[in-house]
Amino acid sequence: MSLPHITWLRAFEAAARYNSFASAAKDLNLTSAAVSQQVRLLEKHLGVQLFRRLPRGVVLTDIGQAYAQPIRRSFSDLEKATDDLFRTKKKKTVKVRASISSATLVIAPLLADFHTRHPDVSVELSTFVWADRFDMENSDVDIRWGFGDWQEQSIQHLANESAVVVCNPASTPGKTDADGIRTLAAQRIYQIVGREADWRDLSEYFNLELPMSQEIVSVDSSVLALMALTTAPGATIVLENFARHYVQTNQLVTPFGYRLPVAPAHYLVHRDGAQDRPEVAAFSAWIQQVYKEWSGV
Q1: What is the chain's pLDDT, residue by residue, as a tens digit (297 residues)?
Q2: Burial class for 99, CB neighbours closer than 10 Å (0-12, 13-18, 19+)
Q3: What angle (nearest 5°) sits at the alpha carbon of residue 37, between those of residues 33 and 42?
Q4: Measured between alpha carbons, how far is 253 from 230 in angstroms, rounded to an integer?
Q5: Residue 70 CA from chain centroid, whole number
Q6: The pTM is what?
């Protein structure tokens, strides 16, 4: 037997679902007479009666009940397949803010991985110089540097971090011990604003008695210090995670094993209530995993 016309099947499925030609007609944007006619054509094609006509409405016969179930399942499978293959899904958006160094050196290079894992989520990444609160609706998530003492309810520590001495390969001293780092510290230093005490802290922490450089270039972010060092001699102290790409690509070197623990840290901060959204939860779990892997936890 050839397959019945799909319009007959659609009329039958709707009428079976509502036990009413009138309700099926309203659902299909047809007249009751049209639905009744299509069902009669289907019954004629199959050679069976699918409905018992009552004074008010219709009732499926036993064979009609048995036929309705696979027809309804077939339409459901067809709708799902069509939706999965051809529907343009609207992506949900997460607005993320971070310092220019965090955004440039940590988050942006890894966004492709996040989008591979979560193709239905779009990330809007922006930067700030310094942030201790959310302003208007400009972000759902902040990656902040500090001590976690902000007013938001959802604040999560990302990782303990350390700072390292990084220099241009041409500036590498012949020795990798205390004498070598003293030689490097006396050369040009790229000093990151807000971290002026790093060289003193490094000297005291490892009892190095480092000299004070007479040539200090001040820059307002780690990324600027690192970029400057790729084309000029000198050194800086920067978070190890920030220097990772430059060291791995041999643009810069870390010639010493000294790692200075730093008291501030990066924190994941949610705008109050934003953490309950699935797309924000997905990004949060991902960035936490990134820092977890980098810290070796």
Answers
A1: 788 999 999 999 999 999 999 999 999 999 999 999 999 999 999 999 999 998 888 999 999 999 999 999 999 899 888 877 776 667 899 999 999 999 999 999 999 999 999 999 999 999 987 766 776 667 899 999 999 999 999 999 998 889 999 999 998 888 878 899 999 999 999 999 989 999 999 999 999 999 988 899 999 999 999 999 999 999 999 999 999 999 999 999 999 999 999 989 999 999 998 999 999 999 999 999 999 887 754
A2: buried
A3: 150
A4: 10
A5: 41
A6: 0.68
Residues 6+ apart with CB under 8 A from 84: none
The Cα–Cα gap between 147 and 135 comes to 20
Tokens of 212: 């004070």
Ordered DSSP codes for the chain: -PPPPHHHHHHHHHHHHHT-HHHHHHHHT--HHHHHHHHHHHHHHHTS--EEE-SSSEEE-HHHHHHHHHHHHHHHHHHHHHHHHH--PPPEEEEEEEEHHHIIIIIGGGHHHHHHH-TTEEEEEEEES--SS--TTS-SEEEEEE-S--S-S-EEEEE--EEEEEE-GGG--S--SHHHHHHHHTS-EEEETT-TTHHHHHHHHTT--PPPPS-EEEESSHHHHHHHHTTSS-EEEEEHHHHHHHHHTTSSB--S--EEE-S-EEEEEEPTTGGGSHHHHHHHHHHHHHHHHHHT-
